[in-house]
């Protein structure tokens, strides 16, 4: 692998520049006004796939969605293949080219969609840098390196890049089930690089994800915003109703207050308890990542359990609420409260949506308000836990040992990648998560970054993983 590693090192600046090009496309899937940018990012990837000589490039359009009052086309799922040699294993890699929203005013030190490489810290800042643009590009740079060196790729590579992951992967499951016996027919294993190391120093291999169910509570009353001096105390205020209901969802110490929510949670087993010993993680890691000491739990074990294997409920925001500076005395006519639940084995999105709806409606009824409540559950992605005793994990472990000269921690992830379980169920093949970024990368947050070290060593890791997949006994 020395020639591959040397090539990757020698092309570092090129990889940084191209990541900068990708970051400059604000492919925010959750914002209707940026839908054309999501399409532009998909087209940018397609151009790269063509340039690199991928074959069977297909763009699957998942259909339409209504978002923020607009009917929009869903961005393409981009499929492409490199190599079709029946004597080689076929690896399917998945990633997403959409990103979370970001505004400089949220507290970014640089413009979020203009990449900045801080040479003194080695950090590359920009929305999507770690989630998930550097990882998806890295698969392409592996192919490019092999081509430049005149080396054969040890496997057939299939890519599946989507543009809606940050918004519930709408339409993707149908495409995967439809293509299971055609495009994905010969796939032997799946690798996803779209999560993060547990800390900042030790690489990880990830075998579990929580699911995510997203909810919106719309309360509307008066036909228009009102003067609080004229109407305060005389009308039911939508915001007062909403705040009351939202306060009945979760306690400040993280307990979910929805009756029945913990009923299906799998009990902690003795074997599972042992997995929490010896992980390279301290509470300081989480304090550094959050730049605060606001953790709820006293021990590492409890903290990780509440990230990995217990459900959590987070309140995200209130659309329609007055939030600008100043002291405007308005009664908002319509507000939409947003929250999500991260789910775990053996919870299902269907059951969660059912009990959340019952709880919210019963709390609203108690208010005897004359306002109107509309409950929506627009996204429901399932959790995933994998068997780590198979050759896909063996190959990835060995690749990590070769590149980083250390054994990885086996981790679960508190976040969600809804398609993971879909691949496992539709293709009946092992799926693993091979993270590139660090816990303090700030995915979804302000000042998202990836360290240059993680980007460059990550490209080497992906190349080595493909070599190990070809080499391990199956
Ligand atoms: C872990 C992955 N990189 C990620 O960020 N996933 C999102 C997926 C999502 C967002 N909305 C709905 N699903 C996440 O875990 O929030
Ligand atoms: Zn992601
Ligand atoms: Zn994300």
UniProtKB/TrEMBL annotation:
| GO annotation, biological process | glutathione catabolic process; proteolysis
The record ties this protein, via Pfam families, to: M20_dimer, Peptidase_M20
Binding annotation for Mn(2+) 2: 96, 131, 194
Q: Name one GO cellular component term.
A: cytoplasm
- Which keywords does UniProt give here? Hydrolase, Manganese, Metal-binding, Metalloprotease, Protease
Give the cofactors, semicolon-separated. Mn(2+)
Mind listing the GO molecular function terms for this protein? identical protein binding; metal ion binding; metallodipeptidase activity; omega peptidase activity
Q: How is the cofactor bound?
A: Binds 2 manganese ions per subunit.
What InterPro entries does the record tag this protein with?
Answer: ArgE/DapE_CS, CNDP/DUG1, Cyt/Met_Dipeptidase, Peptidase_M20, Peptidase_M20_dimer
Domain named Peptidase M20 dimerisation: which ranges? 207-366
Looking up CDD domains in the UniProt record yields: M20_dipept_like_CNDP
Indicate the residues that form the catalytic site.
98, 165 (proton acceptor)
Binding positions for Mn(2+) 1 per the UniProt entry: 131, 166, 444
Residues the entry annotates as binding substrate: 194, 227, 329, 342, 416, 444
Q: Is this entry keyworded Protease?
A: yes
Q: Where is this site: Important for catalytic activity?
A: 227
Q: Name the PANTHER family for this protein.
A: BETA-ALA-HIS DIPEPTIDASE (PTHR43270), CARNOSINE DIPEPTIDASE 2, ISOFORM A (PTHR43270:SF4)
Assigned protein family: Belongs to the peptidase M20A family.
Q: What is this protein called?
A: CNDP dipeptidase
């Amino acid at each position: 692998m020395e020639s591959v590693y040397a090539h990757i090192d020698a092309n570092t600046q090129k990889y940084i520049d191209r990541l900068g090009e990708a970051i400059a496309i604000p492919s925010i899937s959750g914002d209707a006004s940026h839908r054309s940018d999501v399409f532009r990012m998909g087209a940018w990837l397609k151009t790269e796939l063509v340039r690199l000589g991928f074959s069977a490039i297909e763009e699957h359009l998942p259909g339409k969605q209504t978002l923020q009052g607009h009917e929009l086309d869903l961005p393409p799922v981009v499929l492409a293949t490199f190599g079709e040699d029946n004597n080689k294993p076929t690896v399917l890699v998945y990633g997403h080219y959409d990103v979370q929203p970001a505004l400089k005013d949220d507290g970014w030190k640089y413009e979020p969609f203009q990449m900045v490489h801080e040479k003194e810290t080695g950090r590359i800042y920009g929305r999507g840098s770690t989630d998930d643009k550097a990882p998806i590009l890295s698969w392409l740079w592996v192919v490019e390196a092999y081509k430049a060196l005149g080396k054969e790729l040890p496997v057939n590579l299939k890519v599946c890049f989507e543009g809606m992951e940050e918004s519930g992967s709408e339409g993707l499951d149908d495409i995967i089930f439809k293509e299971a016996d055609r495009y994905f027919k010969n796939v032997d294993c799946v690798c996803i690089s779209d999560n993060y190391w547990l800390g900042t120093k030790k690489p990880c291999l990830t075998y579990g994800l929580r699911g995510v169910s997203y909810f919106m509570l719309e309360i509307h009353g008066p036909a228009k915003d009102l003067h609080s001096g004229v109407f305060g105390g005389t009308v039911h205020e939508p915001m007062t109703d909403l705040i009351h209901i939202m306060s009945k969802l979760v306690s400040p110490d993280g307990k979910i207050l929805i009756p029945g929510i913990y009923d299906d949670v799998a009990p902690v087993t003795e074997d599972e308890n042992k997995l929490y010993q010896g992980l390279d993680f301290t509470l300081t890691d989480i304090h550094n990542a959050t730049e605060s000491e606001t953790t709820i739990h006293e021990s590492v074990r409890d903290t990780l359990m509440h990230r990995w294997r217990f459900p959590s409920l987070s309140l995200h925001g209130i659309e329609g609420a007055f939030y600008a500076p100043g002291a405007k005395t308005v009664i908002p006519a319509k507000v939409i409260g947003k929250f999500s639940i991260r789910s775990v084995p053996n919870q299902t999105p269907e059951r969660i949506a059912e009990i959340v709806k019952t709880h919210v409606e019963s709390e609203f009824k108690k208010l005897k308000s004359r306002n109107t409540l509309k409950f929506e559950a627009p996204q429901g992605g399932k959790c995933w836990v994998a068997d780590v005793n198979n050759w896909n994990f063996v190959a990835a472990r060995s690749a990590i040992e070769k590149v980083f000269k250390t054994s990885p921690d086996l981790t679960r992830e508190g976040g969600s990648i809804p398609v993971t379980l879909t691949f496992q169920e539709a293709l009946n093949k092992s799926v693993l998560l091979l993270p590139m970024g660090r816990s303090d990368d700030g995915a979804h947050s302000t000042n998202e970054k990836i360290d240059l070290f993680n980007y460059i060593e990550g490209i080497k890791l992906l190349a080595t993983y493909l070599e190990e997949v070809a080499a391990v006994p199956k």
